[in-house]
């Protein structure tokens, strides 16, 4: 039984999750081949090794090469449903998107149907979310644990204008999840990262007793005085430490 522990000392976002999974050994070409089953065009996935404060990690950059339209939840569900991905991967991916859309709709006082994933962001989110689910499945991860989540502060500019950090949708997604404040003026946990990890697990806290076999690092885009990396430990639980299975 393979388990993963997400060590979010610099937060968590979609591309960091995908980068850490590739760093753990997910074959890049396999991932790209699986993602082609979505029949989604106009993008390119660039994967490279980078350094953050002299620590190596894997950076995943989604480059949008064609003009994209706004997509709502039903548009994204249609893309996933009409793909040839495995049924379980479709189901979990749609669940993550629905969770994300519900959080956004609540904080913006609208309906799930009216929430739009804007242009480039929609493509990024589809690749990050579906790619993460594909990766967890391919690596045979059956249980996921996660550290307490750090929250930055300050403000960021998005399609809705200037909003506080953590983003309101992130806060909504992290209800009942243990978090702590930091003095870092950057967005450490994104809505996509929050939606993915809260779907994968409800067990947040210290690392369980486990035997580590691999460690992967996913690189964030923001450079700071801290190593902007997501660290994921892969291994086996000691017999009495088992807690919760991932539905994959």
Care to describe what's here?
The structure is a single chain. The chain has 248 residues and is of the alpha+beta class. It has one domain. It has seven helices and twelve strands. It has helices spanning 14-23, 28-35, 73-81, 87-107, 119-138, 168-173, 191-200, and strands at 2-7, 43-52, 55-64, 71-72, 116-117, 141-146, 149-151, 155-158, 161-164, 179-181, 210-219, 229-237. The strands form five sheets. Strands 6-1-12-11 form a four-stranded mixed sheet. The protein has a two-stranded antiparallel sheet with strand order 2-3. Strands 4-5 form a two-stranded antiparallel sheet. A hairpin with a 2-residue loop joins strand 8 (155-158) and strand 9 (161-164). Helix 1 runs parallel beside helix 5 (119-138), helix 3 packs antiparallel against helix 4 and helix 4 packs across helix 5. It is globular, with a radius of gyration of 17 Å. The model has no long low-confidence stretch (mean pLDDT 92).
**Total domains, how many?**
1
State Rg.
Answer: 17 Å
Order of helices and strands: EHHEEEHHEHEEEEHEHEE
- N/C terminus separation: 13 Å
Structural class of the helices, strands and pairings? Answer: alpha+beta
Question: What general outline do the C-alpha atoms trace?
Answer: globular
Task: Give the % helix.
Answer: 25-40%
Mean pLDDT: 92
% residues in beta strands: 25-35%
Q: Work out the number of β strands.
A: 12
Low-confidence stretches: none
Strand order of the largest sheet: 6-1-12-11
**Total count of helical runs of at least 4 residues:** 7
Largest sheet geometry = 4 strands, mixed
């Amino acid at each position: 039984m393979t388990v993963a522990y997400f060590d979010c000392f610099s937060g968590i976002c979609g591309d960091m999750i995908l980068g850490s999974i590739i760093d753990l050994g997910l074959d890049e070409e396999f991932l790209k081949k699986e993602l082609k089953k979505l029949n989604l065009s106009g993008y390119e996935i660039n994967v490279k090794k980078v350094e953050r404060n002299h620590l190596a990690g894997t950076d995943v950059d989604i480059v949008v090469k064609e003009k994209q339209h706004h997509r709502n939840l039903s548009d994204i569900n249609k893309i996933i449903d009409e793909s040839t991905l495995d049924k379980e991967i479709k189901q979990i991916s749609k669940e993550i998107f629905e969770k994300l859309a519900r959080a956004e709709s609540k904080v913006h006082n609208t309906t799930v149907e009216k929430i739009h994933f804007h242009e480039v962001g929609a493509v990024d989110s589809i690749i990050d979310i579906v790619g993460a689910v594909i990766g967890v499945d391919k690596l045979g991860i059956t249980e996921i644990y996660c550290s307490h989540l750090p929250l930055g502060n300050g403000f960021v500019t998005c399609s809705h204008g200037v909003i506080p950090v953590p983003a309101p949708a992130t806060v909504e997604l992290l209800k009942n999840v243990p978090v702590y404040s930091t003095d870092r003026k950057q967005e450490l946990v994104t809505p996509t990262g929050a939606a993915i990890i809260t779907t994968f697990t409800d067990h947040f806290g210290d690392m369980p007793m486990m035997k580590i076999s691999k460690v992967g690092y996913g690189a964030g885009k923001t450079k700071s005085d801290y190593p902007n990396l997501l660290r994921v430990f892969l291994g086996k639980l000691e017999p009495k430490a088992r807690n919760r299975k991932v539905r994959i």
